[in-house]
């Protein structure tokens, strides 16, 4: 019994060693000299299964007689790369089931991924090779073209390694994550403290509510806790946008004179809190100016209504802008350089539309008071907008 077990052990060990030697000794497919390989599709071949009516992975023991073998090529992730197709026997190349051309024996055929993406306008492309049975004589490589003036690229080419660099965390990225967490904490706290008022404050439909019997300002004064923290969050959203512009070398209102060099996350966070405090104070200074102008024009009863609607609209606009900037920044989309000349257009459009909306929503029935209201809104909205655009950039 022991001798049988010993014999079986050595037989298994020899078989395992031989299979390992054969696997390690498999021929390596090398592209032409002007390319270096990024990915080998040799283990990704598919065959069509009539039973499942779909493509299934190629199996050596089952599909060796198949003359049609296919691959799904991701055209989005592999932009700027080149696809090389080769067959040791004469074969035919199909794309999306349509015959393209003949693949000459032992010759690489080049397919540009960018051109395929523009032509087919699909995220994935079905590539099929028809020829001799099996996949042993077929090779498909994803490659990158070498730069002739780059000796380091030429020296490092020839091996099937993907040079994947880890994502670098920038100080602004860390700050953006921290600011998002802080704003979410304050938002949840306000919601738990006064859920009904919070829901009405963030409701865009509530902005257009002009029913005198159901005005939001009757239960939420500008100096109440809910409105004060709502203004704090809005100031933080505005501060985040300004810090983002400053981090991308867009000096709005010359804020670089009061900000640090932004060499680390803590300094950016410090600038964020400074700007948030400034915006908070400016908001309530504006409220004081609104009260004074309202008393002079006999519009003191509408001051609180207009102030809350200003805070509502500012919160909704800057929250949407915050989420857009946050998403684009973390996806590493460099969009600001192309939009630099139009960066003030959304703000101009928003403040102009808010001016008209405030006049329509809060318009009283008397014609004389209408003139006072229009003058009042010009003082608190249009004049600051004109001055702001003049000194913004």
From TrEMBL:
<keyword id="KW-0812">Transmembrane</keyword>
<keyword id="KW-1133">Transmembrane helix</keyword>
<keyword id="KW-0472">Membrane</keyword>
<keyword id="KW-0732">Signal</keyword>
<feature type="transmembrane region" description="Helical">
    <location>
        <begin position="342"/>
        <end position="361"/>
    </location>
</feature>
<feature type="transmembrane region" description="Helical">
    <location>
        <begin position="172"/>
        <end position="191"/>
    </location>
</feature>
<feature type="signal peptide">
    <location>
        <begin position="1"/>
        <end position="26"/>
    </location>
</feature>
<dbReference type="InterPro" id="IPR025367">
    <property type="entry name" value="DUF4271"/>
</dbReference>
<feature type="transmembrane region" description="Helical">
    <location>
        <begin position="306"/>
        <end position="330"/>
    </location>
</feature>
<feature type="transmembrane region" description="Helical">
    <location>
        <begin position="373"/>
        <end position="392"/>
    </location>
</feature>
<protein>
    <submittedName>
        <fullName>DUF4271 domain-containing protein</fullName>
    </submittedName>
</protein>
<dbReference type="Pfam" id="PF14093">
    <property type="entry name" value="DUF4271"/>
</dbReference>
<feature type="transmembrane region" description="Helical">
    <location>
        <begin position="265"/>
        <end position="285"/>
    </location>
</feature>
<feature type="transmembrane region" description="Helical">
    <location>
        <begin position="223"/>
        <end position="245"/>
    </location>
</feature>
């Amino acid at each position: 019994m022991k001798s049988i077990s010993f014999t079986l052990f050595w037989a298994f060990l020899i078989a395992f060693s031989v299979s390992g030697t054969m696997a390690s000794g498999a021929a390596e497919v090398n592209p032409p000299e002007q390319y270096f390989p990024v990915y080998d599709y040799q283990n990704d071949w598919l065959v069509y299964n009539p039973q499942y009516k779909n493509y299934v992975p190629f199996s050596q023991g089952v599909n060796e007689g198949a003359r049609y073998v296919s691959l799904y090529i991701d055209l989005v992730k592999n932009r700027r790369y080149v696809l090389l197709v080769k067959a040791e026997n004469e074969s035919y190349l199909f794309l999306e089931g349509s015959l393209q051309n003949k693949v000459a024996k032992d010759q690489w055929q080049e397919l540009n991924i960018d051109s395929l993406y523009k032509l087919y306008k699909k995220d994935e492309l079905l590539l099929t090779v028809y020829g001799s049975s099996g996949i042993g004589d077929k090779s498909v490589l994803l490659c990158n073209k070498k730069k002739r003036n780059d000796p380091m690229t030429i020296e490092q080419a020839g091996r099937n390694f993907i040079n994947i660099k880890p994502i670098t965390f920038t100080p602004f990225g860390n700050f953006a994550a921290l600011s998002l967490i802080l704003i979410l904490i304050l938002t949840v706290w306000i919601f738990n403290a006064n859920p009904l008022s919070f829901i009405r404050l963030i409701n865009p439909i509530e902005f257009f509510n002009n029913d005198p019997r159901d005005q939001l300002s009757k239960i939420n004064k500008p100096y109440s806790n809910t409105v004060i923290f709502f203004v704090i969050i809005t100031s933080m959203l505005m501060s985040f946008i300004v810090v983002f512009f400053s981090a991308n070398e867009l000096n709005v209102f010359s804020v670089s004179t009061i900000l640090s060099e932004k060499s680390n996350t803590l300094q950016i966070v410090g600038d964020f809190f400074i700007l948030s405090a400034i915006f908070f104070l400016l908001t309530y200074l504006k409220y004081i100016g609104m009260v004074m102008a309202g008393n002079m024009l006999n519009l003191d009863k509408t001051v609180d209504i207009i102030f809350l609607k200003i805070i509502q609209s500012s919160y909704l606009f800057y929250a949407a802008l915050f989420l857009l900037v946050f998403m684009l920044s973390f996806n590493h989309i460099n969009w600001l350089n192309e939009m630099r000349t139009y960066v003030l257009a959304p703000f101009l459009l928003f403040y102009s539309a808010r001016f008209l909306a405030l006049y329509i929503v809060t318009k009283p029935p008397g014609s004389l008071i209408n003139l006072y209201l229009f003058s009042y809104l010009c003082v608190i909205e249009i004049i600051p907008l004109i001055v702001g655009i003049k000194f913004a950039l």
